[in-house]
Specification:
The chain has about 180 residues and is mainly beta. It is about 0% helix and about 40% strand. It contains no helices and 15 strands. It has strands at about 20, 25-30, 30-35, 40-45, 45-50, 65-70, 75-85, 85, 95-100, 120-130, 135-140, 145-150, 160, 165, 175. The strands form 4 sheets. The chain has a 5-stranded mixed β-barrel with strand order 6-7-9-11-10. A 3-stranded mixed sheet has the order 1-5-4, with no helix packed on it. Strands 13-14-15 form a 3-stranded antiparallel sheet, with no helix packed on it. The model has no long low-confidence stretch (mean pLDDT about 90).
């Protein structure tokens, strides 16, 4: 059995043989064992269970996903909605700040926020520090960090062309972004 995170309703792959005793977080529908919680199935003795994954606040080096909510010439404000792969409950998002010096590792003095992010972009980043009382400082200064989802002015999901450009598939227009390198490349 693979140790991948399952979402509610997803089927659980089981080894050949009889169906194990099911514990919390699992149910059977149409003869198929399915997850009822977000988590990784584990055996606790003879019983297969999925324990509830508890969300936690970001800490230094936490991998986060968030949405850009506001831009200023020196920083981008981000609403953090996922911490270390665990979604936060609705309404309990944290606020993060990406400063110009934390966007990329080289040529930090030439960075323009408007060429890296736009409102509504979904960003993958790492927490640097706890910042002030209201927000966390976030960096995107690695190849695998940056914008992972953006919508063009035409309302279409854009595709990355390079580490600093995304293209609208409908209009062909190119917009500047600090793109995260896709995980499968």
């Amino acid at each position: 059995m693979a140790s991948e995170v399952l979402l509610p309703g997803q089927p659980v792959s089981l080894p050949r043989g009889p169906v194990p005793k099911l514990g919390g977080g699992l149910y059977i529908k149409d003869g198929q064992v399915r997850a009822s919680l977000v988590g990784v199935p584990r055996y606790e003795g003879p019983t297969l269970t999925i324990s509830r994954t508890r969300p936690h606040p970001p800490a230094a080096n936490s991998l986060i996903l968030g949405t850009v909510t506001r831009l200023s010439p020196l920083q981008a404000m981000v609403s953090i909605s996922v911490v270390d792969g665990v979604p936060l409950p609705a309404g309990e998002e944290f606020t993060g700040v990406i400063r110009t010096q934390d966007i990329r590792a080289t040529e930090k003095d030439k960075v323009k926020i408007g060429d890296c992010f736009r409102g509504g972009d979904v960003v993958k980043g790492v927490v640097i520090s706890l910042g002030d009382a209201r927000s966390y400082y976030i960096t995107t200064a690695r190849n695998d960090l940056g914008v992972i989802f953006a919508t063009s002015e035409a309302g279409v999901t854009m595709e990355p062309v390079s580490w600093q450009e995304m293209r609208c598939p409908r209009t062909g227009r190119i917009e500047k972004r600090k793109c995260a390198k896709p995980e499968n490349l």
